[in-house]
């Protein structure tokens, strides 16, 4: 069976969705809609339709929504009412209330609703999570992320927390196999825009793991790093390159009395793992396709996306009030 796919939005992210939808087996990119036209020329022989209603009228089985966040709810609700399985880009919506309405609509219709938290499909993080689940790090103590770089002109409707920190919050809950228990945050507005362009988040998962996220649009260098520290050492995932490195706690006996009396750790072997590195967007689309076909899959559900947005909103509320938010 070949699924007919529709794509709403062919901007910076939508153009990549168009490419991958044309490449994966079992899917035909049947229709494209974008009221702003086709700035990157990705439509090919397909006409560029005006809106989501025209996309639905083209007769599609599944859709990808890659328009600005504030338009996610309206598009998703129209697609769910038409019986179309849908993947929306992250964050799921601009408010928790809107996200909840989307979750309810797709659940009630018995449709697949997914959110494009693409970091879950990054090969370094998938390999890290597999090794964590096999107990290679022992007890996990802390998960910290750094996601920073120059300001992206394409983002205008949300701040850095919803656009970027949502990646780190979702991947941390996923890698750590636990929901968030509480968060505190501080924000900064340095670029003269309405929304924050820098945030520092600290918190704790329900499992007791300490978390920390540094995110901004104000750095001249680009960094995408996740560090998981545990009793046997630390995993460092560079999601920009897909590399995963393990720093082992040393096991060499210490003869220096004043050091050996400290019950800490010492430096040990460093290993960079070799493993297949497939394009995360392609893996994400294959998972969505499999979900629509009723196969085993590991999509990020709309319920997952809503939990992530709830943590994001809680972090922004904590920054505004100066008080930790309990989830």
From TrEMBL:
SUPFAM superfamilies cross-referenced by the UniProt entry: Glyceraldehyde-3-phosphate dehydrogenase-like, C-terminal domain, NAD(P)-binding Rossmann-fold domains
Domain Gfo/Idh/MocA-like oxidoreductase N-terminal: 4-117
InterPro entries tied to this protein: Gfo/Idh/MocA-like_OxRdtase_N (IPR000683), Gfo/Idh/MocA_Oxidoreductases (IPR051450), GFO_IDH_MocA-like_dom (IPR055170), NAD(P)-bd_dom_sf (IPR036291)
Name of the protein: Dehydrogenase
UniProt keywords, alphabetically: NAD
Keyword Cytoplasm: no
Domain GFO/IDH/MocA-like oxidoreductase: 126-235
